[in-house]
Amino acid sequence: MAKQLPGTAESSSRVLEQLRGKQVLITGTSGFLGKVVLEKLIRTVPDIGGIHLLIRGNARHPNARERFMNEIACSSVFERLKLEDSDGFDYFLDTKVHCVTGEVTEPFFGITQSKFDHLAGQVDAVINSAASVNFREELDKALAINTLSLHNIAAFAHSGGGLPVVQVSTCYVNGMNSGQAYEAVVSPAGAEIPRSPDGFFEIEELTSLLQDKIADVRSRYAGKQLEKKLVDLGIREANHYGWSDTYTFTKWLGEQLLMKALRGQSLTILRPSIIESALAEPAPGWIEGVKVADAIILAYAREKVTLFPGKRSGIIDVIPVDLVASSIILSLTEAFLEPGRQRIYQCCSGSSNPISLGEFIDHLMEEARSNYAAYNHLFYRQPTKPFIAVNRRLFDAVIGGARIPLSIADRLLKLMSQNRELKLLRNIDITRSLATIFGFYTAPDYIFHNDRLMALCERMGSLDQTLFPVDARQIDWATYLRKVHLAGLNRYALGERKLSRLKTNKVRKAA
Ligand SMILES: NC(=O)c1ccc[n+]([C@@H]2O[C@H](COP(=O)([O-])OP(=O)(O)OC[C@H]3O[C@@H](n4cnc5c(N)ncnc54)[C@H](OP(=O)(O)O)[C@@H]3O)[C@@H](O)[C@H]2O)c1
Q1: What CA–CA distance (Å, rounded) separates 152 from 100?
Q2: 3-state secondary structure 45-76
Q3: If 0-12 CB within 10 Å is exposed, 13-18 middle and 19+ buried, where does residue 59 land?
Q4: Per-residue model confidence as pLDDT tens for the chain (511 residues)
Q5: Cβ 168 under 6 angstroms from ligand 1
Q6: CA dihedral 243, 246, 247, 249 (to 10 degrees)
């Protein structure tokens, strides 16, 4: 039988006991995952001491509290909480949610050092979910948020006397490695990077080299050209060291930075695979934005894409967002129960409940064919063509071959002062662009393992397994993809309606 974590009887929740009265700082709550983590904590751990949200101001809302009330608290993610206990929700926001206007990429989060130290003294742990998830981000921006900002997270943890940190990373730090991918430090698949005897990789020289290259590009270009050059630089460097894109490369660098900076302290690196809509909580299908697989589904639904590079037999690793939020909360609890250790967990489905890309496509196609009218924001009419995944070489040959005569025709039309855009050419360009960004993810070549996360879940006991489910074996792919995810995309990502602000606007609190 699995060893129980110390502390409590099997029938009680270790999570609820450990988090009672605790103060937690969370970054990234204006994003998809951060919102679900926040909602889950408010709904399931009401006795938590306080939740501090580090939010940067934007042009409309320079103040974190104002941005929180106008962009986060009114999200449909809180619909369930409001329906169940609207006054309780408002009261929680008023008394336990504290918003800090700050920028995680700046030293001391861009606030004064004394405020920074004071805040660190107030909180008990950090969940860092902020990131740029743009696969082709400009290298300087990706490096700042996904890697270098972790110096500030580590400084915060030190200032608080060794605060446990849960760092949200990604399974795709595995880059161009292939095969079985375990919950361990990942070795680069490309150019060598020195490894420390402590297990992580030494990245200081590499990050300063990257900064020199960024400075060089900045000195030679400006405006849009500069942006493009910084995107190209990111992809080039990522490919050189063994990653397909700048996002995953800089997230891997971030893991190394934190493992070194928090040596001997509590650090949990939590790597989700591709996060998709909620399986059950706060509502089946809840999702925000159109990302990765959804961008391709949407392009297909709008009849822009029918051919895509992909490996039908490859295991596509998708994980519902509520399972990821629960795994973050379990990791946080474990850090309180057994502090002073570094751990890596993967929250994924590939090893325990695999689904191939081919099956994934077939489920969605079948639903689109038989039930398209139920998803009126997604499908404007019944799709007439199949979605075909072919190997990269064939894709390049077909798309490249079709593009040549079409672009000649397009140029001729322009010469004849015909301002008509060729629809087929436009669709080919959309397909090519999506394939460039996401092609790596539709030709999956590894299986992500989550044995350690499952062991943690087992150690936590049966009540926490029910309250904070992380087990991907509970997903019935046909139901999830066809009835939950497509409905969620249709309702939340494409038909998002903001909740009434009447209630939440009552709550005002200075940052
Ligand atoms: N989505 C996925 O499929 C997926 C898969 C695996 C891992 N992950 C990881 O999960 C975490 C959350 O991802 P997500 O899908 O929730 O992303 P998201 O919706 O794009 O949200 C990103 C969050 O990070 C913040 N952020 C971005 N750039 C920032 C900057 N320069 N300074 C301060 N804050 C910044 C954003 O704040 P603003 O609103 O102020 O920009 C936002 O709150 C990330 O760490 C990501 O790497 C995501």
Answers
A1: 15
A2: CCCECEEEEEECCCCCCCCHHHHHHHHHCCCH
A3: exposed
A4: 445 555 444 579 999 999 999 999 999 999 999 999 999 999 999 999 999 999 999 999 999 999 999 999 999 999 999 999 999 999 999 999 999 999 999 999 999 999 999 999 999 999 999 999 999 999 999 999 999 999 999 999 999 999 999 999 999 999 999 999 999 999 999 999 999 999 999 999 999 999 999 999 999 999 999 999 999 999 999 999 999 999 999 999 999 999 999 999 999 999 999 999 999 999 999 999 998 889 999 999 988 888 899 999 999 999 999 999 999 999 999 999 999 999 999 999 999 999 999 999 999 999 999 999 999 999 999 998 899 998 888 888 877 776 777 677 666 666 666 656 667 778 888 888 888 888 899 988 999 999 999 999 999 999 999 999 999 999 999 999 999 999 999 999 998 543 333 333 332 332 2
A5: yes
A6: 40
Please state the pTM of the whole predicted model: 0.93
Question: Helix, strand or coil for residue 97?
Answer: strand
- Give the distance (Å) from ligand 1 centre to CA of residue 405: 41
As a whole number of angstroms, the distance between CA 402 and CA 382 comes to 25
Beta-bridged to residue 27, according to DSSP, are: 54, 128
Greatest Cα pair distance in the chain? 81
254 lines ligand 1 (CB under 6 A): no
Question: Tokens 């990706």 label which residue?
Answer: 142
329 lines ligand 1 (CB under 6 A): no
Tokens of 425: 């050419």
134 lines ligand 1 (CB under 6 A): no
143: DSSP letter: I
Distance 154 CA to ligand 1 centre (A): 18
Amino acid at residue number 25: L
- In this structure, what DSSP letter does residue 222 have? -
Q: Which of 128, 247, 257, 275 to mutate to test the pocket of ligand 1 (most atoms within 8 A of CB)?
A: 275
**3-state DSSP call for residue 483?**
helix
Confirm or reject: Cβ of 36 under 6 Å from ligand 1. no
